Amino acid sequence: MAHSANGTKLQIETFRDHVDADGILREGALPEPPVAEAYLVFAQRDDARIELPAWQRHAESFFDARLGLTVDKRYPEGFPRVDAAPVVIAPRSGGESVRLCYGRPRTDDDLRAAEDADSRAGNTGLALLAKRCRWVWLVVREEDLDRAALLLSAIVASVVLGPILSSPESELFGVKTARSKLETFTGPYR
After folding, report:
1. What does residue 151 show for φ and ψ, rounded to 5 degrees?
2. What are phi and psi of 95, to 5 degrees?
3. Who's near 28: CB < 8 A, 6+ residues apart?
4. Residue 174: count of CB within 10 angstroms of its CB
5. Which residues contact 168 (CB under 8 A, 6 or more apart)?
6. How far apart are the C-alpha atoms of 23 and 75, rounded to whole Å?
7. Rounded-to-integer distance, Cα 174 and Cα 182, Å
8. Which of 35, 58, 67 is nearest to 137 (CA)?
9. pTM of this structure
10. Euclidean distance between CA atoms 140 and 127, whole angstroms
11. Distance (Å, rounded) from C-alpha 85 to C-alpha 137?
């Protein structure tokens, strides 16, 4: 995953070069991150809008963390089909990380991966929830076990009301399981 992490760092550092005056990703300006190197958060939304106040409220209220963007976003003329942002996440326990979030319409491959993962888990019903989600957010991991990316994925999932697909494990889970996973990272995530 080291190659992708370096590419992601470069994308974050040069992100302002890829957005318009409102902070919206220009079409084709930034390649989509590989799904295999991200948490895929299914979203019950009809666009790739970053609902920053809701993301911040959920981060603070349910995850004891602060969250912000490195680039301001404004949506004066409707909402984008594709957008991205470097997101700063800072848990109360300390440390601050930046992870790239990339929103786009859900694909048939995304849904098929969710259905396969849910089938292996014994058909928990999360694939049915994923099917109701028309958009996804890719939260790029910098390493296989990336606590900041998982925390950010859990926060986003709690707002957009969809499950999280983890690659390469191909595991589909909800916010409650994400919180349990966060507890295994050297103690509580808060």
Report:
1. -60, -45
2. 85, 150
3. none
4. 18
5. 36, 144
6. 9
7. 12
8. 35
9. 0.90
10. 21
11. 11
Please write the tens of the pLDDT for every residue from 94-143: 889 999 999 999 999 999 999 999 998 888 889 999 999 999 999 999 98
Question: In whole angstroms, how far apart are CA 153 and each of 100, 134, 173?
Answer: 11, 17, 11
pLDDT in tens, 35-64: 999 999 999 999 999 999 999 999 999 999
Query: Quick check: 69 and 53 in contact, CB under 8 A?
Result: no
Closest to 24 (Cα-Cα) out of 98, 84, 103: 84
DSSP state of 19: B
Q: How far apart are CA 2 and CA 10, in angstroms?
A: 12
Amino acid at 86: P
Torsion-angle region of residue 7: left (phi > 0), alpha (psi -120 to 50) or beta?
alpha
Burial (Cβ within 10 Å: 0-12, 13-18, ≥19) of residue 124: middle
Residue 84 makes CB contacts below 8 A (sequence gap 6+) with 15, 18, 25, 30, 100, 101, 102, 103
d(CA 140, CA 102) in angstroms, rounded, equals: 8
Q: Which two tokens stand for residue 141?
A: 């991991």
Task: Name the DSSP letter for residue 48.
Answer: -
Report CA torsion sign: 56, 95, 171, 140.
Answer: positive
